């Protein structure tokens, strides 16, 4: 039985999806992700890159509104996932863009504003990965270049069942790139 007890946290996270845990709704960015976001902005600023955070925590309602864009609502499709299926809904993801002179915001993977011969966008991604984020640009099925997330090893299914990374949790250095 000692063997089983040692594995209880893992086993509990593997129960069927309909076994929900009653947990308070997430309403903000996870504290570790929030701290890493600030670090990302500061470290990028140090190398002459102004990072603009365009999105962080997103409620289920906000996610559903985004999902309707390009489907029942006008516009282009901006997301592949409905409310509750995005790491943004659990405060574990941020989206970024680049700030340029004149207050412009750029979604340009080639822009080299600090003139060091390297893409500013990819420089930010490198710093983000060093901080423990995984990057949506590495996803194979739907590349999401502005997207950075820190899932702490929790799948969307586990989060939907009410499992939450604790507030005090160490950021993981290497993460699987193919979680949404
Ligand atoms: Zn995102």
Notes on the protein architecture:
It comes from Cohnella luojiensis. It is a single chain. The protein has 180 residues and is α+β, with helices and mostly antiparallel strands. The protein contains 6 helices and 5 strands. It has helices at 2-6, 8-13, 31-46, 60-68, 120-130, 156-160; strands at residues 50-55, 93-100, 104-106, 134-135, 147-149. The longest helix has 16 residues, at 31-46. Residues 173-180 have low confidence and may be disordered. Bound molecules: zinc ion.
Small molecules bound in the structure, each named once: zinc ion
Specify the CATH class.
Alpha Beta
Major beta-sheet overview: 5 strands, antiparallel
CATH topology: Muramoyl-pentapeptide Carboxypeptidase, domain 2
Low-confidence stretches: 173-180
What structural category characterises the helix and strand content?
alpha+beta
Tell me the β content: 5-15%
How many strand segments?
5
Q: Total domains, how many?
A: 1
Oligomer: single chain
CATH architecture: 2-Layer Sandwich
Assign a percent range to the helix content.
Answer: 25-40%
Helix-strand layout with pairing:
Elements: H1 2-6, H2 8-13, H3 31-46, E1 50-55, H4 60-68, E2 93-100, E3 104-106, H5 120-130, E4 134-135, E5 147-149, H6 156-160
Antiparallel strand pairs: 1-2, 2-3, 2-5, 4-5
Helix pairs in contact: 3-5
The protein binds zinc ion.
Pfam family, one: Peptidase_M15_4
Protein name: M15 family peptidase
Organism: Cohnella luojiensis
């Amino acid at each position: 039985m000692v063997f089983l007890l040692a594995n209880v946290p893992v086993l509990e996270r593997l129960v069927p999806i309909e076994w929900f845990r009653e947990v308070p709704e997430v309403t903000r960015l996870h504290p570790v992700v929030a701290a890493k976001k600030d670090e990302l902005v500061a470290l990028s600023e140090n190398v002459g890159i102004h990072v603009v955070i365009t999105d962080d925590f997103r409620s289920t309602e906000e996610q559903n509104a985004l999902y309707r864009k390009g489907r029942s609502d006008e516009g282009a499709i901006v997301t592949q996932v409905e409310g509750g299926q995005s790491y943004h809904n659990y405060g574990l993801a941020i989206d970024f863009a680049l700030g340029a002179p004149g207050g412009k915001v750029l979604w340009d993977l080639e822009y080299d504003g600090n003139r060091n011969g390297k893409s500013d966008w990819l420089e930010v991604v490198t710093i983000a990965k060093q901080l423990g984020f995984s990057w949506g640009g590495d996803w194979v099925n739907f590349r999401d270049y502005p997207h950075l997330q820190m899932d702490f090893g929790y799948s969307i299914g586990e989060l939907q069942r009410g499992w939450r990374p604790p507030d005090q949790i160490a950021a993981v250095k290497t993460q699987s790139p193919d979680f949404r």
